Each structure stands twice: as structure tokens, then as C-alpha cells.
Amino acid sequence: MSKTYHDTSENQLRKSDPKRKILYYLKIMGKAGLVDISKMLKISRMGAHKHLAELQDRGLVESTQVNKGVGRPIMVYSLTDNSRTIFPKAYGEIASHALDYLSKKLGNEAVEEVLRTRQRELFDKYYDRLKDLKFNLRVKELAKIRDEEGYMAESKRERLNDSFVLLEYNCPIIQIAEKHWEACTIETDLFEKVLDAKIETTHRAAKGDSVCRFHIRKNLTGFS
Fold it and tell me: Whose CB has fewer CB within 10 Å in the chain, the N or C terminal residue?
């Protein structure tokens, strides 16, 4: 008897690009119907349904019936909790356990010092890419950097002059942030320093939101 093995690793999904696109699409949209997914993939509904069925078999996607008034109910697809293991992680369980150990042995001050040491390293890395850019381009470049690090990030200009929003649809450090709130506070502090901006954090994945949302407003003084 052959044994079926469901590999849900990121490497396995990279071999199946349409499925990876579906996962990222659902990560951003929250939920979507078959028509929307087939349009996004630019393939037939039958082809999209086949990919969705395979993702459901892997336990990464689930479906529910939604009544739209007149006519037959439609199937709406969304990610399962298991899908969180697919998206890139900057740290992981080992880092989370290490910080838990530090907190237990040396207190929260030791955890904060480790996180701030990491913040200083990231500041140097980020600043090197942002220092010669105007404010709007700094925000855009920061979003690009964060996207490269697995946060599925994008930036948008708001109506107010020199005001932007940074959106992160994936939290690679969520295992840490859920236990150690200092990680979120220090992250916001890093953004303020590297952008020379005032930042208000309105949504956090570690608090159960589907996205981390940062409202960014340029400081009146500082570099360009």
C-alpha cells in the first residue's frame, strides 16, 4: 500500500507556483470565491478548483458555503491555521524558546536587551538603504526591505500630505510577538528612527488582527 505524504513546507510549495499564489492571495484578501481566484491566476475555474482541492487536502485551505440571496450558494475559500507554517519566518520556535528561557532565568529586561541589540543591527542595515532617499521613497524602500524579509509588506500614500501607511500581511516573528510584546514596541521604535517619522500602530497580528498596520507621518525636523 502506498503512503501519501503531505509536505506543507515552503520549499514544496515553491514547486507549485499557482498554489503558492493562491495562498498569498488568501493571506491578503482574507477570503475569496472561485471566480476571483481563477481570475487572479488567469486560468479556468476548473483549473483553479483543482489547485484549491489539493490545498484543502493538505489542510492549508478551507471552504464554506455562503448564500448570496437568489441562486445557489457559492463556496468561499480561506486559509486554515495550519497555513501559517507556509509563510517565511525570520526567527521561529528556537528563537521563541530561547527568549522564554532568558525571561525565566534573567527577567524581561534580558529579553528586551536581546531584541534591542537586534534592532540596532537592523537599523544599520535599513539606514544604509534609506539614508539618501526622500521621505516618500524611504517609506517605499522600507516596505520593499520588509517584503524581502518575509513580511508581505506594501506601502500606500494616505490623503494627508506626507502621510503613509505600511501594511504587513505576514508576521514572521509572531511566535515571539505573541509572548513578548516588547518585540512589537521595539519594531515600531525602529521604524520611527530609520524613517525619522511619527508612527501609530493600529493593527497587530500578534493581537489577532489579519494585518500589521502602521500609520506614518513625517517629522517636521530631521533629514529630508
Answer: N
Q: Are 102 and 81 part of one and the same domain?
A: no
Between CA 184 and CA 188 the distance in angstroms is: 6
CATH number of the structural domain spanning residue 53: 1.10.10.10
Residues 6+ apart with CB under 8 A from 37: 22, 25, 48, 52, 77
211, three cell numbers: 494585518
Cα 69 from Cα 79, distance rounded (Å) = 25
Q: Say yes or no: 65 and 121 in one domain.
A: no
Q: How many domains does the chain have?
A: 2
**In angstroms, what CA-CA distances link 95 with 71, 115, 137, 177?**
51, 11, 32, 11
Contact 112, 186 (CB under 8 A): yes
Find the domain containing 196 and state its range. Answer: 93-218
C-alpha cell at 59: 489542510
Q: Which of 85, 102, 118 is the last residue of a domain?
A: 85
